[in-house]
Amino acid sequence: MAGYILKRLVSAIPVLLGISIIVFLIMAMIPGDPATAILGSYATPENVEKLNRDLGLDKPLVQRYFIWLGNMLQGDFGRSFSLNRPVIDEVLERFNGTLILAGTSFVICSLLGVAAGVVSAARQYGLADKLITFVVLLGISIPSFFLGMMMILIFAVNLKWFPVSGMWPIYGARDFAALVSHLTLPALALATVATGVIARLSRSAMLEVLRQDFIRTARAKGVRERGVIWRHALRAAMVSIIPVLGIQAGFVLSGAVYIEIVFQWPGVGRMLVDAILTRDILLVQGGVVFVAACYVMFNIAVDVAQSLLDPRIKT
Amino acid sequence: MSFLRLLARNRLALAGLIVMVCVVVLALITPLLPLADPNVTNTADRFQRPFTEGAALGTDHLGRDLLSRLLHGTRLSLAVGFAAAVIAATLGAAIGIVAGFYGGRTDNIIMRGVDMLMAFPYILLALAIVAALGPGLLNALIAVAAVNIPFFARNIRGVTVGIVHKEFVDAARLSGMSDLRIIVTEVLPNVIPVIVIAMSTTVGWMILETAGLSFLGLGSQPPVADLGSMLGEARSALITNPHTSVVPGTMILIIVMAINLLGDGVRDALDPRLKSGALNRPMPTTLVDRKGPVPQPKEGGALLSIDGLKTEFHVKDRVYKAVGGVTLSVRPGECLGLIGESGSGKSVTALSVMGLVASPPGVITGGAVHFEGQDLVGAPYAHLRKMRGDRVAYIFQDPLATLHPLYTVGDQLIEAVQSHHATPKSEARAHAIDLLKSVRIPNAEKRIDSYPHEMSGGMRQRVGIAMALANDPDVIIADEPTTALDVTVQAQILSLLDDLRRERGLAIVFITHDFGVVAQLCDRVAVMYAGRIVEEGPTDAILNAPSHPYTSRLMACVPELGGGRRELAAIPGLPPVVDRLPEGCAFADRCHKAQEACRRGEIELVDNGPSRTVRCIAPEPVTEAAQ
After folding, report:
1. Among A105, B197, B354, B600, which one has the highest count of C-beta atoms within 10 angstroms of its own C-beta?
2. Do B284 and A262 touch (CB under 8 A)?
């Protein structure tokens, strides 16, 4: 198993390099002169030239990439000019918030989505199936930012069950209960679409598996229907559900940007949007590379989970 | 066109289509409608509620008419979403076709790049692109299109790879057509349906994503607004004036939902598996819709007796009569062979006993299955479940598919025991090891922790037998358990089954198409054809002197070892399709002795010598010598 993990980690290196190249190239597409973009159109030519030199922009593209990459590998993502602090400090601090939000949402959508899919498949064409199918359709069609706004309106403003926004109360203790009450609405809003997608895929994966011969064997053995569904069918269906969970994790992680804006949640997504609007290129660059790298690592974890679940995968 | 008809049959997809057509028509005629200018501000009339005079949906924070802004915004959102979909589909398909068509190094490099792009969380990449290009609706469109290109490229490449190796492409190559021409005339027409499906399932996403970027303030810039930026602008007034948020938000919901419904409909209509209803999951027991009375067992003393059993498959409006009134019985310790060609209904007969015929589409429509005098057809699920594996156990063909691939054989054996007897795990495990030993699996203590894929076919079949023996059943129904095995292993398994029968007094129903197996193992044999028993009797008697023409023709098909270069007689023709059974004898069309009377009326199973029956009006004579 350790060997397999190592192998997957090594295979991630070219992907990570590719990601850094893509981000670098996208940022290099910026029309016009980045220094002018940063300093504004009233900047003096001397200042523009100085900044270009400071940012290393006077060097050829390839050389610039390797300087950037080398610095990143040493933990130096550059300095955010709008916040006047190292990019990595800001990203790490903000990523914490995103991780709490997206992590919770991911747990919710995985559990709820798979459960809904299993129940739906087991009761195909029954009332539960129709109800779940309808809710799922609604869930995958509603924009998460609109859903979030409606949740604020209903559950925070009208019913006053949860706070309107933020991660912590402005006054009062920053304890677990406070976090949970602040987290509930945004986590649910963020999980909704992914829950729907996972439920749909789980349903069809289950239907596919339930037709297999080994399910008939389980029934012929006299296994109770609950065992047939949850132990036999779901276990086999998980093999095709887990990769979907991995993909949805990406949607949850990056979809957090909308929810962070709607709920004023201090996370990477909101930081990125602010950075884009203030043209803080280094902050965008650093944030995107960091989150994408984390996602690659997460996908390795998904692969490892898959290999633990399926003994047929050679480790 | 059948595709459109299928789509129309799906009511939800039709609803989606109608909504979508309305929205698109509304968006197209928006400039012609008598609406207020969407961008004229009138702060005196700000935040008017819906249904007020002169503003049907109210006004926003700058006093602009919401209805007018909504329709113009919808127009913009749809245009941008569709444009992004078309761009992504075109470029993605082009990349995918090139990669799939040329293969090799080109394919490798392109797909690596695509994999890299797909390694990004989707929205993050769009944000990076917008960050580089700067906020703006056109840039948001480019970003959304760009992040969707890999999805199309990968899908289309897969389809192209499948097409490139087809004969018609080879033929085009040999005829000297240029690559470009082959792509345009041979490949493209075949991938277009896939492109359409992929587009129909993603255009909703793209509308949502561009709306999202606009919502973040990175898409359309004021005063022009698409649905997303309307929602974004309304956010600050969410609590005081929710209607300004609800109006555009609901519109996005309606559009995306209609597209999703339509996309699902398109996919379902194009997916052939759904047409045949194959994606139905089988229920825990076979459906029973018994017409007519419950027959009583013909003879006493039988442990298991099947009486006039009828099992049908109802697919759409067709009825396949897989089992058309079968009567069979086994006594304790007896082995009954059930023989016939593929599709003759022998497996369905066997599965009907414990209600294991997949349903839908299977339905038991008549007859009875008595076990120890008690009818099992239509018995409650809980009762059947208790009998399954405990009193009546099955051994299936092809144990690679019939054993669960992700559990060790030990776990599967232990489960078989624990499903019927509350046994501690350690005890059940010891029992499982004993079972593996009893089916002569060497090194059972170690083998118990193997997964099915780690075993050979013969070993897996032994596991299947061990599982059937787990609860010491009274009857074992073995459905071609040796068909997938080579001859030596087959002989071992057969002698194993025979020993077990003698040791434990098991009754065995052995389904096969192999007369050799029947001769070796079975006391009696029943021959099935097109869902009915055509001949039944003691094995020796039937093998020595078959009296139904089908039996004798079937036996003539068996090559005999050392029998010289005898010509093997294949039976001419094919078995009848069981949804259109001919009147009279189903074998008449293939029978050399067929007469006029064979095709008229019901032909009964009649006595034909001591404990023999045959369903034929002109059976071969049974001589005394053959008895």
Report:
1. A105
2. no
The CA distance from B30 to B537, in Å, is 82
Residues 191 through 230 of chain B touching chain A, CB cutoff 8 Å: 204, 208, 211-212, 215-218
For residues B527 and B572, state if they share a domain.
yes
Q: Contact at 8 Å (CB) between B328 and B349?
A: yes
* Contacting residues of B for A143, CB less than 8 Å apart: 208, 211-212, 215, 231, 249, 252-253, 256
Q: What is the pLDDT at residue A102?
A: 94
Enumerate domains of chain A plus CATH numbers. Answer: 88-314 (1.10.3720.10)
Whether the CB of B451 is below 8 Å from some CB of chain A: the reply is yes
Span B131-146, average pLDDT: 90
Whether B184 and B301 share a structural domain? no
Residues of chain B contacting A251 with CB distance shorter than 8 Å: 121-123
CATH at residue B374: 3.40.50.300
One domain for residues B375 and B356: yes
- CB-based contact B212 A284, cutoff 8 Å: no
CB pairs under 8 A between A and B: 237
- Across the interface, of B238, B393, B403, the residue whose CB is closest to A153 is B238
In a domain, B244, yes or no: yes
Whether B408 maps to a domain, the answer reads no
First to last CA, chain B: 63
Picking from B221, B249, B276, the residue at the C-terminal end of a domain is B276
pTM comes to 0.87
Q: Are strands B532-538 and B524-529 parallel, antiparallel or unpaired?
A: antiparallel
Q: Please report the ipTM that was assigned to this predicted complex.
A: 0.88
Q: Which residues of A touch B280 (CB under 8 A)?
A: 124, 207, 211
Which residues have a Cβ under 8 Å from the Cβ of B509 and sit 6 or more positions away?
B304, B328, B330, B335, B336, B338, B350, B475, B476, B477, B478
B117 pLDDT higher than 90: no
Question: Which residues in chain B have their CB less than 8 angstroms from residue A207's CB?
Answer: 279-281
Q: Helices marked H in B359-452 — which ranges? A: 381-387, 399-402, 409-418, 425-438, 444-447
In a mutational test of the B interface, the residue from A105, A214, A238, A280 whose CB has the highest number of chain B CBs within 10 Å is: A214
Domain count, chain B: 2
Find chain A residues with C-beta within 8 A of B381's C-beta.
225
How confident is the model at residue B364, as a pLDDT? 92
Q: What CATH number does the domain containing B231 carry?
A: 1.10.3720.10
Q: Please list the residues that pair with B469 across neighbouring strands.
A: none
B108 & B194 share domain:
yes
Question: What sign has the CA pseudo-torsion B336, B342, B347, B352?
Answer: negative
